[in-house]
Structure formats: structure tokens, C-alpha cells
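INFO  loader      accepted 1 record
INFO  loader      residues=591
INFO  predictor   begin
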Amino acid sequence: MQALDVNALFARAEQAFAAGRLEQAEAHLAQVQRLAGDHPAVLHLLALVEKKLGKTESARSAFAKALRLDPRNAEIATNAGNFYSGCANYEAGLAAYEQALAVKPAHLPAMRGRALCLARLGRTQEARATYHRAVGLAPKDAKAWIALGALERNEGDLQAAGNSFDRALALAPAAPPAVHGRARVALERGEKDAARRFTEAERLLPEDPQVALGAAEAALALGREEALRKFETVIARFPGWAEPHAALARLRWETGEHETFTASLEAALSEQPANAELWSTLITTLSGVDRHIDAADAAARARASLGEDPRFLLLEAANASEGGDLHRADRLFARLPNLDGAIVAEARHRLKISDPDRAETLLERALQQEPENVAAWALTGLAWRLKGDQRADWLYRQESVVGLCQLDITDGELETLAGDVAKLHHASSFPIGQSLRGGTQTRGRLFERAEEPMARLRSIIMGAVRAHWQRLPAGDPAHPLLRHRNETPRFAGSWSVRLTDGGFHVAHIHPLGLLSSACYLRLPPAAPGAGRAGWLELGGAPADMELGLPPLLTVEPRPGRLALFPSYMFHGTVPVEAGERLSVAFDIVAR
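INFO  predictor   done
INFO  writer      dumping C-alpha cells
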């Protein structure tokens, strides 16, 4: 009779769980355990109940016990993996999914979970291979196609992502993640139907802020006024969310509203003065158009509203230094705690006030903590040059670290391509947060656009990149570029820049790349006495730092010429005199 009572109690617990009566299910399971002790099925259900009740430690304990008692139960292992990955413990989640797959190698939920954990752990190639295995085993599994598409999009492979989302939509036409994912790919690739796709995504996901923001961004193709209306609608619905405010400020700035471009942020902060995300966005937006003292003052206002938050102390210090208020920056840096980003920001400030020894000490600490920090390497190179340290030659002057080549493309094809690229320059002012002054820059990832000429250009340029990569000096584990010598190069971001009368780039670096670039499509006619107008300057210190370090190399722009150089090299351009200078740029990373 007791066995029947236990079975009946367990059945009631299952029924209560299925009906959402979680406390009742928990009580029934407690009775079962008192009568029959631990059993893997009981512990499994208890773990699921505790997970839904938010009792994380109890759920963790129940899953662990269940797996110890029944280690070859793929269902328990998969649900344990779901639990761990839901807690962002991706190592434990991966181990649980692999335990499930060791028992059932074709178990699709465990396979999808394994891929998700691998992606979260940065093991993207393994994740992608796992998703491909999943869709190979079950080509009609829409969830696997959606997950693969999302991973491919995050990796920057928009063409593959579009294909995967299309496969998912063929199987599940109204699946919201597939509709939204495909709309996002259409937007980023410049496809003509992006706005229509976002209209469908909004119908399926009316409360999703990311969908609403994407619809506003897609509306740019329909005209400035339509986009402004959409952005203002998103802000009205989600007034405390900083991202649409940043997008609206960017649109207003790029279309000439230079006095009122931050109006929505200021209005939102008047209503929500304790919103740290809004303050951070305002400061970054002001800094991005060289209004550094205004940005420092905004950081001081943020501290007055939020209290002594060290993040805003750092933003005030860094912007005060960038804006030339060096005494104010000195006082603020002296008060900063050991905070991420503070070491490199203070090192830049120390270089500006002619203290390269202190700057180098700070940068050594930064590189010990983060050996791939491009900004730290860039400033270290300046410090070494100021001190006459021969390591600057090791960093910059090794043969073939910088490469120049002429693309394998005819003059006619180049001019046609230049015409196609020029049509993408819709903005009328330089973008926020970029190095450009006096011109326009395209949005999105140029090389991932749907137009065939972009695919052709991408292919030609990647061939040149691979040839340059093969010419790099031997691998060197201490060198920020050459430590990746034996890896495979791939594109990260890609965009086009159009410089017009007097336009130029301030000296800058690309903190997310290994190699950066300039590829020239169209140049203004050479003017008598123009000298080096529009030339690329590599290795010189930014003018605002007043270090007196000239460029290490200057490059004459020529149609079809490609320049490749380490991303840690500061680079800028001499202002163009007149006309249009159209170029393409991109970053290279490795894997």
C-alpha cells in the first residue's frame, strides 16, 4: 500500500507542476521523499519545481543529487544544463549537456544547449559546428536554424545568418525570433525590404523594445522625418531606455541639428535624474563630437545626482583631460579608485602632461591585466618613442608590419564601385564618436551588404589581406599583432568614408582590431600646390596630446590602393583641399 501511496503522491506532484501549482507540487514531493527517500525521478521534478520557484540553491542541489543517482539519464542532464545556463554558469551547463550527449548523441535539446554554452564561452567555431550538426540531423528543427542564424549574425556573417533565418521561416513563418532576426539582417545588409520586415516583427512582438528600435532604424531608408517620428515614438514608450536616445541624437547630429541634438536626453534626465544609463549616454554622445568639457560637466552633474559613483568620476577626469583642463583632470585622477579603464585613461593624461615614466608604469600594469588591450599598446608605443626606447622599433618598424598594394581591379570597375558606394552616403555631417571631420560615413557593415559589387570588393580585398598576412614577420608571443601570426584573418567592421572640402581624420586607433586599413576608390583631381592633401599619416601622436611625435610613415592615396597597418598605430589624414575623397575601411581580427 505504501508504494501505491508514494506513486499516487508523485502523480499528484506531477499534475500540480503541470498546472503551475508549484507550492503544492513542492509539498507533495516533500512527502514522497519522507516516505521513499531520494529517487532520481523525484529529485528531477523537485529541481524543476525549485527552479520555477526561484529557489536556486535548492534546485542546484536537487539536480546534482539526481545526476549522481542516475548519471546516464539524458533528460535530467539536459534540464540540468538548462538550469545552469539560465544561471549564466556556462561551464557547468556545458558539462551537463555533454553528459546528456554522451548517452544520446543525437539529443537535439542538449545539442542546442551545448552550442549556446559554447557561444557564451567565446568558443564560437565549436558552437557553430554544433548547430550545423543539429540542423544536419534535424533539418526541420526551426529552433536550431534560429539559433544558428543568431550566432552567425553575432559573428558578422550576415549572408549565412540570412540564409539560416530564411530556413527557419520556411518551417515556421510566424516564429517571432526568426522574423525579428531576419529583419535585423535585412537592416544591417541594406536590403530594400528591411522596413517591411520590421513591420511584421512589430506585429508579432509589439512590446519588444529592440524590435521597436530596429523599426525606427529601418525607417531611415524612408526618409529623415519618418525616422525622427519613429525614434520619438520609441522614446515615448520607453523613456528611460538610453539606446533610442543615443540613436536619435546621432540622427539629429548627422542631419545638422548641432545645437539641440541631445535634447531628448536632457529632457529624460530632467524626469529621471537617477538614471545612470542616460547620464552615461549623454556624456559619451557629447564626447563623441569633441565637446569634452561639456561632457566633463555632464559627468559632474551625474555625480551630483547619483552620488560619488567612480564611473562618472573617471568620465569627468578623462574628458577634462581631453578637453585641455589638465589641472581639473589631475585632481580627479588623484581621487580615482582602481577601476577598469582608469589606468589607460590616466596613462594618456600622464603623456599629455609630459610624464612618460609614470605613463609607462601605468601601461605595464594595464597590459599585465589585459595583454590584448589595443589602446594600452598604442599609448605604450608613444611612451617608448618619447623616451627613445628601442622597443618602439620592435612595435612599429618591423618589415612588412605595414603593407601597401594595388588591388586587382580595373579602372572601370573601380569607378562603377565608387559610384555604388557613394550612393550609400546619406548623412550630411560627420558621425558621432568617429574620427571623421568634414564628411560622411556609412552605417552598418559595408562588406555584408546584399549588393553584388560589395561581395566582389570584399573578395578582392580579402585576397590582398591574406597575402599581406603571409608576409608578416614570424610569430612573436609578446607582440600584439604577431602573436596572432599563425591564426586566420577575418573581417570585423567595414564601412566607407567620404571626405569633402577640408575634411580629414583626427589621429585615432581601432581598439577592436588587429589590422586596420584604408582603401581608396575615388580621389579629387590633384590641385597645383596641394602637396600632401588627403595623405594618410601612420604612427604620429594625436595633435591634441601635443607630444611633438611626427608620423612614422605617410601614404599617398591612389585609386585602388590598399594600406594595411596594425590597429594600435595612431593614424589620421591631412585635410583634403577640395573635391571628394572616397574610401573604404575595415578591421581585421583573427581566429
